[in-house]
Structure of HTH containing DNA-binding domain and MocR-like aminotransferase:
Amino acid sequence: MLPKISQRISQDPSAMDELLALSNNEQVISFAAGYPAKELFPKEQLEKAFVHRSHNSDLNLYQYASVDGYAPLRKKIAELVSRTGVSDIDENNLFLTQGAQQGISLLADLFLDIGDGVVVEGPSYIGALQAFESRKPTFYEMQMQSDGPDLDQLEKIVSSHPVKLVYTIPTFQNPTGVCMSVAKRKRIVKLAQKYNFLIIEDDPYRDLRYRGQDLPTIKSFDQTGNVVLLGSFSKILSPALRVGWMVAEPQFLQLVNGLRSATDFQPSNVVLQMIDQYLEENDLEEHINQIREVYGQRNEVMQSTLAQYLPQDCSFSKPDGGFFIWVTLPQNMSAKSLLTDNSPVTFIESSQLYETSHQANQMRLNFTGVSEQQIKTGCKLLAKQIKNIRLALTA
Amino acid sequence: MLPKISQRISQDPSAMDELLALSNNEQVISFAAGYPAKELFPKEQLEKAFVHRSHNSDLNLYQYASVDGYAPLRKKIAELVSRTGVSDIDENNLFLTQGAQQGISLLADLFLDIGDGVVVEGPSYIGALQAFESRKPTFYEMQMQSDGPDLDQLEKIVSSHPVKLVYTIPTFQNPTGVCMSVAKRKRIVKLAQKYNFLIIEDDPYRDLRYRGQDLPTIKSFDQTGNVVLLGSFSKILSPALRVGWMVAEPQFLQLVNGLRSATDFQPSNVVLQMIDQYLEENDLEEHINQIREVYGQRNEVMQSTLAQYLPQDCSFSKPDGGFFIWVTLPQNMSAKSLLTDNSPVTFIESSQLYETSHQANQMRLNFTGVSEQQIKTGCKLLAKQIKNIRLALTA
């Protein structure tokens, strides 16, 4: 017999894994996963960068390196982050992670004991919810509004409960596509200072804006170290690199460093140097502009197809960037009921994206990992399915 | 103000990080870290493998992939593991990790709540100790003997205390270099079955044998799933790849999969495919034979230099493989006292390698990451330092 696993850990299969499985069935059109368009990966440039760097480096490229990651790459990322309004930042404010997911997980692990308070957006990113869940905290939810999470609700929560972490995706939120207003970005920092919580600002979609003006990061308004900013190359270069970053004060990052060295010791220096060389040889901004053009078009196509075919009592978000459109079905309709074994279209249903309220009548549609033709066909099929279910409900 | 960090987490700087710092000062001869010899990394072959695979793969190489890692590589590793006596093993028994370190950390996280029992060897690998420490368990120590850990002591512990995990490095143990006898390998499995604990068999040095016969893994005697075997490419290919593996039953690996997807989501598919291609194009065994020859020679040189220069009341281990020689100083001498700011030689002193007994008169010397000349010079200097301190002690 084996010993009991931790009381913190659920034995349920991983929802993220199920999500990937949904997306790997080639018989169906998948709006489920948050995949970038593979045809946009700069494969040749990455190959070239790797060969150039490996060829021109000494053998230390393949040796153990530092826990926080290759310093010249940290410096380059610091420069990118400074453009979001964060001042006085250099490589010592940067810590490289195995995707932004590891950043979330390390912060959860660093702060949370069983029962500690965590506030998340309702709905939110499932990978973050799972990272928090495995620490068994007390969850609170702030509902998403059109200009970001409801901060009146947040203030009520943090003024009456001990809360350590507040997790937000302020730019093109996953799953709703909403951007937090500048006013709210400023206010949430003030709340963090007043109520002594840490804001985890998860910002992987920031560069994928198809309309409108860039907004400053929440971190740019932080004078007290109450905000940790997370970013990633997964959505703008390639998710198979598994490289993200954490921005915080150097002293704070020392704590993270200690924890990470016991977790997986350090990142892959080979991959970090490949990215560093890629950034030296290529114009990342130009590459992102190409992505923006394709994704912006797909966003338009999905919005116009939904507008044309969705029943009147459904609504959907009209994001200016990011990966997702958020569809709201009539109150009495469960999105899960559309996900049968022979559904021609898959998506993420909302109940698992709400940590406490489990609202069931919404769905997340990804538009970046599918072609315009798939978007058109898939949205039509989805609208038809919705109509059929409505008929069954009203019959 | 920031919220309090978890009561599980120590604010001390990471000992592993300090260890790396000790090894990066080029002014001193470092026997401290467990570095492989960089001149043996198969750089050109790895480069070639990466380019070939990237060039001949579709763009999915750069896309999100599976949480447990690229299946063909898992299959190849299963074949390697089957040679250690583990029968009925295939890719479904393999889970790829970010170095073996992540395997230890995932198992610690999966099982341990605060206060849960963990048994470790005294002394043991500092990275494992830290992974367990961050879960704040109750530690027990089994002392190392010449044929492996004291299993009478282990039986006393597990028969009188609830213990979930027993961590062992049975082959060329870090830091002592000891191999666990076959009799003890069989007995520890029986104890695990009787007292319902999980054995973590950490086996990264197995292939680095310079003398004598290979021993079967502990896992090869396991019929009940009470043993999880960990391995790694870090010591036989390159630690900058950060690829290790976990061998267990498929149902058990599902639990690990769920936890890992919330931790860092998945390994880097780019790196896994590079290794997979390397293994297709090259004879790993032949590469390992080259490493064995060099390291075997360094091991001899260190042993003979220590035999010649160490004072009579010091002793040292004579390992048949692995990375380390274990030196025991007279009982009243602290190894730490030899590590001053201007020491010409660094090593790992023993007190931090014992989780409970903190024995202070031993030191771990690495012989793989240094040249024969450095070994000779360093060991002479070290012997001189020891003699000086003895003089001071007796004066």
Observations:
- The two ends of chain B are 53 Å apart (CA to CA).
- The domain at 15-42+286-394 of chain B is CATH 3.90.1150.10 (Aspartate Aminotransferase, domain 1).
